[in-house]
Amino acid sequence: MRRASLLWLLCPALLAAQTANLNGEWLVTRDFLGTPLNQRLTLKVEGAKVTGEFAGDKLEGTLAGNKLHFIATDEDKNTEELTGTVSGETFSGNVVSVDARDKETTTLPFTARRAPQPHGGAPQRHEFVPSKFERAFSSTTAPVLTISPGDTVHTTTVDAGGSDEKGVRRVLGGNPETGPFYVAGAMPGDVLAVHLDRLRLNRDYAISDDALVGRAQTPQTAIRMKDNNKNVRWHLDRERGLASLENAPDGLKNFAVPVRPMLGCVATAPGFGQAGFGTGDSGQGFGGNMDFNEIVEGATVYLPVRQPGALLYVGDGHALQGDGELNGNALETSMDVEFTVQLLPKKSIPGPRVENATHIMAMGLAGSLDDAFKQATAGLGAWLDQDYKLTPSELAMLLGTSVEYKVSEVADRNAGVVAKIRKDRLTMLVKK
Predict the structure, then answer these.
(1) Which pick of 46, 289, 353, 416 has the fewest CB atoms within 10 Å?
(2) Phi and psi at residue 69, in whole multiples of 5°?
(3) Residue 135's closest CA among 284, 316, 324?
(4) How far apart are CA 181 and CA 159, in angstroms?
């Protein structure tokens, strides 16, 4: 009798300890025929009652001993029913998904764990010297360094052909990337903000060519350009900040242009079900080879987080690029890069965004300029809606008077269009 009474007294303490372990943020990984599906789980346990969110949907359930059960329901009445067994700092079991329309049911095993958390304390500065470079934006590549929101990384990139600051070929070409960097605390459904603190040339030459890309050519232009496509080498005068042609033809012997260092590639890893994209590609869900000539020192790039840790890639340095990257290559060169990362938790964005001192900018990346134009317009509209709660009528009037557009990219599979608006126009808006 005394022993039973003692156990009765201990049970609340044991339950409280178990509850403390379950409260907070978890990373749930489902095994979908060998492909991991990573989703955020937030739990709040009060006695036997469990509430929270699973992949952004509200959940309700129970905790009985080490048995956890809940059902999450989205706005279309689709459900996810999770049943698992808790063991210390992990739990595992099955998730049953039910489609509300056709009642199709899918059952998948899962494991849940605490994702690596930020280090806490003061932001850190990391010196990272890359020893290898990646040729795909992939979620399966092991991270080269774990950093936390607020941290700064100083590193270098190779050029699009794989050569470093000394002109040494380090890797096969195709925009090899530095990274990926694991951002502790970044979870699917967050937004990663990458502020470019410093972009500087670190060698005295760049490579380009003398052709025009197909999207820029009429049939007549194509005939005129048929013998072009030769490599061109540019001298980079870093002291004066000028680029000029080596072995310049007569018409361009006096031609010198101010450099404006930029990154052609800034990317996070793509989401579930997507194989790695080659580093010459781009997309709304991960950024990538955006080739936007305003991704320069002082700009901030915002990208969706689709995988734990975000997995940030940087590369494809350009000394200078005109709108669209008409030659197929800009002035391709290696780069000295310093960036700081921040995290915007649970903030959904439809595609990449860029911000500088004067403008906010939304990128559209699609197979045609027409579709990219629509993506960019929708993306800027979504940004204004999130921040200012404009009605459709108000949004139309604002965009109709104040939007600006740039063609960012026509050289690769996806075309790029950027919709931008001046910040001084936004100061006149009334936040709701």
Answers:
(1) 46
(2) -145, 135
(3) 316
(4) 19
376 vs 354: CA distance, rounded Å: 12
Residue 409: name the closest of 265, 220, 236 by CA. Answer: 265
Within 8 A by CB and 6+ apart from 71, the residues are 59, 60, 61, 79, 80, 81, 82
User: What is the percent of the chain where pLDDT is above 70?
Assistant: 95
Q: How many residues does the chain have?
A: 432
CA 386 to chain centre: 19
Find out whether the peptide bond into 180 is cis, omega within 30 degrees of 0. Answer: yes
- The whole-angstrom separation of Cα 206 and Cα 426 is 39
300 HSE (CA, 13 A, CB side): 16
3-state SS, residue 58: strand
pLDDT at 88: 85
Rg (CA), the chain: 25
Q: Please give the average per-residue pLDDT across 192-200, as a whole number.
A: 98
Please tell me the pTM assigned to this model: 0.91
Q: What is the pLDDT of residues 301-318, one digit of tens each?
A: 999 999 999 999 999 999
3-state secondary structure of 22: helix
| Amino acid found at 317 | G
DSSP codes joined into one string, 351-414: S-EEE-SSEEEEEEEESSHHHHHHHHHHHHHHHHHHHH---HHHHHHHHHHH-EEEEEE-SSSS
pLDDT score, position 115: 79
- Do β-strands 287-289 and 242-245 pair in parallel, antiparallel, or remain unpaired? unpaired
The bridge status of strand 152-157 relative to strand 125-127 is parallel
CA gap 212, 293 in Å, rounded: 18
The closest of 155, 144, 377, 410 to 289, measured between CA atoms, is 410
Q: Which 3 state secondary structure label does DSSP give 317?
A: strand
* DSSP E strands, 220-271: 231-237, 242-245, 256-258, 262-267
Domains in the chain, start-ordered, CATH in brackets? Answer: 12-113 (2.40.128.120), 125-349 (2.60.120.580)
Which residue in the block uniquely carries the two structure tokens 């045609």?
Answer: 368
Report the alpha-carbon angle 187-192-196, nearest 5: 150
Chain mean position to CA 228? 36
Q: Determine the Cα–Cα distance for residues 432 and 388; give it in Å rounded to an integer.
A: 6
Identity of the amino acid at 142: A
